[in-house]
Design brief:
This protein folds into 2 domains: 30 residues; 128 residues, 2-Layer Sandwich (Beta-Lactamase). It contains 6 helices and 4 strands. β3 and β4 form a beta hairpin. The radius of gyration is 22 Å and the shape is globular. The N and C termini lie far apart (56 Å).
Length: 167
């Protein structure tokens, strides 16, 4: 390698190191926050167990920030429809960035917002879904379906959130 080429390569490396280590660059770079499979599985199991302890056989779904299924569990004896409702609640809470029950109430009280429930076939405006947040950013959603009442689905979904955000 010629002396000029060596100096050029070293100059480029120094420039790259200085740019990438600059605090302004670090602030501008988005930090990818993700939900690990292990954590999602533990959270889903906590929700299933909470419902089983309360006498309910449910399904639990956890989706990632893109709304894609990360984990889904169906308790022994839970109805087949619970798989679909748990996924749709998780998807909805992630997509709309809030608890599904809040949007269910919002659309009942505001008829002009009812179209919110028909945005796509994955949206389900029924309680039992919560967004998963990390450092104030929504990184996924959890949904529970199959308990006899929204309040029971929500208690189980909250058990998953306690695993995901233990503080």
């Amino acid at each position: 390698m010629t002396k000029k080429l060596r100096v050029f390569v070293i100059s480029i490396l120094v420039l790259l190191v200085s740019v990438l280590s600059n605090p302004l660059w670090a602030q501008a770079s988005p930090v990818q926050r993700s939900l690990t499979l292990e954590l999602a599985a533990r959270a889903a199991m906590a929700a299933v167990q909470q419902c089983l302890d309360n006498g309910f056989k449910v399904s639990v779904a956890i989706v990632d920030h893109s709304g894609l299924l990360k984990v889904q569990m169906k308790a022994d004896g839970a109805g087949p429809h619970t798989l679909d409702s748990s996924f749709r609640k998780a998807y909805t809470s992630n997509s709309l960035r809030g608890p599904t029950q809040r949007f269910a109430v919002l659309t009942v009280n505001n008829p002009e917002l009812r179209a919110l429930g028909q945005m796509n076939e994955k949206i389900l405006l029924l309680g039992g879904g919560f967004p998963i947040t990390m450092n104030g950013e929504v990184i996924g959603g959890v949904g529970v379906g199959g308990a006899p009442g929204i309040e029971h689905d929500e208690v189980c979904a909250e058990a998953a959130l306690k695993v995901l955000n233990p503080e």
